[in-house]
Each structure stands twice: as structure tokens, then as C-alpha cells.
């Protein structure tokens, strides 16, 4: 198996990594800082201001399959280049919104840009280029993306202190135009066979989207990773209140939450070193199990602060590695010929879950009489996802053994 990277493509991971930092930072993380001043000036309610952001995530998820199919056919240059240009235009428009209608229209456009520029299309591009070495390439790319919040949360806060929120959006529009667009416009032209694998052999091992979507296993594994993503998304917005509801002070809750970002990067580093010899399925089983285990730790006494540090480590590592698993699993299960479409189809419900997660947690909060009931329900949902993933892994292992036995008998 050829694990070398073509010298002419050595620039791809760091360059795409830079665009991921800018794209995630400007379209995903910056809004968390700018949301409150925008709400105050526009005179909107909290649900209205958050809802616009959820619309973008929903649209991004619904377009994932189409974006992946385009990359399968013609490569990523046109799609990701157009996405970067659209992001620049939409962020510039966001600096000029004055009411809810304009806000929602602009965020809908940003959702389209997200579908063409964030991890999913980038994974499809590097899977084409890096061939059998795709998982290592995906891991390295996510190491860059993991720093988006680390860079853009403090950067956005600093910019906001010196200029208004409208000017911040203009600066981020310029960043997408001047940094992301030139890099995306330089991506390999056309699809071509994945490096390191002859075209004929790639096609015989791969299946197209229509064939894959006839298999129950596809829906089971997609459901497992969707449940996992739903809980992560719910906790991302509600984590600090959940910690405080269990008796943790606001300062300590913020400190525990701040550990999660570095732990995500640590998880990806561990996967790239210790876990590189394991299959994506094995890594995924370990990572998806960390979420319910971490949530169980939140039922500890508020006096056991070290337990909450362990929670942050397990939670962050699991989330960091699951990003890689969701990117690499479609190629491991179904081959690389139709990777873009298949990974996009798997990503669609995941993105919908990410958009719905905070709202689902709010419903659980009302139905469960507070955050303790919410946490218990989220723990159960995440455990169900882990159990379902384990069932799929066992089924695939048994299926592989049966095929091996049939081959031996013939």
C-alpha cells in the first residue's frame, strides 16, 4: 500500500487547513461573540437571533449530499472556490442587516457557503488526492481546524472592542475573499483517480450512493453518529448551565469548558499516533463510547472538581476523534469512488442534529424539570448511539467472516 504523498500536493493539507480555520472561525464561531451586540442593536429576541444561525446549519446539512456529488464528478476547485466567494459576499451582507428578514436571508446564504467550504467538501477533496492515505490526511486537516475556536473567539472579542460588529463581519468577509478563495481556486482541477490506487481497482471495491442506500447498515451507522452529534451539539450550548446546575461555580464551569478545545486537538494527535494502526471502526467505537462515560461523571459531587477535569478530557477527546471518524468511515466502508456523495448523505442528518441539538436540550429541560433530567436524557441518547454503533461493528465483522469462509470453501 502506497502511503506517500505526491510532492506536488504537499501544500494541500496546510493550505486547506488555513482555509478551515478561517471558514469555521468566521462562519461558525464568531457568531457566538457577536450575537449579543447584534441582538441588542437589531432589537431581536434570543430565539430569533439563534434561529437564524440554526437555519444556516440546517441548509448546510441538506446540501451535503449534492456538494459531495459535485466533488465526485468534477473535483473541488469550482465548488469550494464558489463557496469561498459566496461566504465573502454573505458576510459582507451580514454587516448590513437591519431586521430579522434580512438576517435570516443572509444566514441562509451562509448555510450554502458552509456546505461548500467546511470539513465535508474538504474531506472529499483530500480523499481523492491522498488515496489510501486518506485517514491520515483527514486527521492532519482536523488538527488545523481544531484551532479555529482558539483563534477566532479571542480575535473576534478583540476586534469587537476596537470596532463595531458590522466592521468585524466586513473584516471576515475580506479574509474569506483574500485567503480562502485563492487557495480553493488552486485546488486540483477535475476528479481523476485517487493517488496510489489504479482506477479499475478503486471502482471494483467501491459502491455508488444508490447501492449504499439500499443497505440497512448505512442507516444504522448514520443513526449512531447522528445521535452522538445531537448530544454534542446540545451540550455545546448548555454545558456551562449544566455544570452550574450541579453546583459548580461560574468561574470553575468556564475553566472546565475551556479545557475541551485543547482536549479535542489532543484526541486527534492521539489518533494520528497511537491509533493509526487501528481501523476507523475500532477508533470510532472507542470515541463514541467516551461521550456517555463523560456525561456520567457530571453526576458526581460538586466538591470533586478533578472528576470534572476528567469529564472535559473524555468529552473533548471523544468529540475531536469523532470528527475524523465521520470523515474516514464512509471511505473505509464503501470505498472512495463515490466518497463525496456517500459522506454527504451521512452528514445530512448529522448536520440537522447539530442544528437541532440546542433546541432539543431546551425541550428536555422543560420536560425533565431542569438540567439534571436533561443530562440524564442526553446520557441515555448518547449511550444508545454507542450501543447502535457497536451493533453495526459486530454485524460488519460477522459479515466479513462469512464472506471469508465462503471464499475459503470455494
UniProtKB/TrEMBL annotation:
It is found in: Membrane. One of its GO terms (cellular component) is membrane. It is a multi-pass membrane protein. InterPro entries: MFS, MFS_dom, MFS_Riboflavin_Transporter, MFS_trans_sf. The keyword Iron-sulfur does not apply. Residues 1-397 form the Major facilitator superfamily (MFS) profile domain. The chain crosses the membrane at residues 12-31, 51-71, 78-98, 104-126, 138-156, 168-187, 217-240, 252-271, 283-301, 307-325, 337-365, 371-393. GO terms for molecular function: transmembrane transporter activity. Its main location: membrane. Keywords: Membrane, Transmembrane, Transmembrane helix, Transport. It comes from the Bacteria. Coiled coil: none annotated. Pfam families: MFS_1 (PF07690). PANTHER family: RIBOFLAVIN TRANSPORTER RIBJ. This is Predicted arabinose efflux permease, MFS family. It comes from Pseudomonas oryzihabitans.
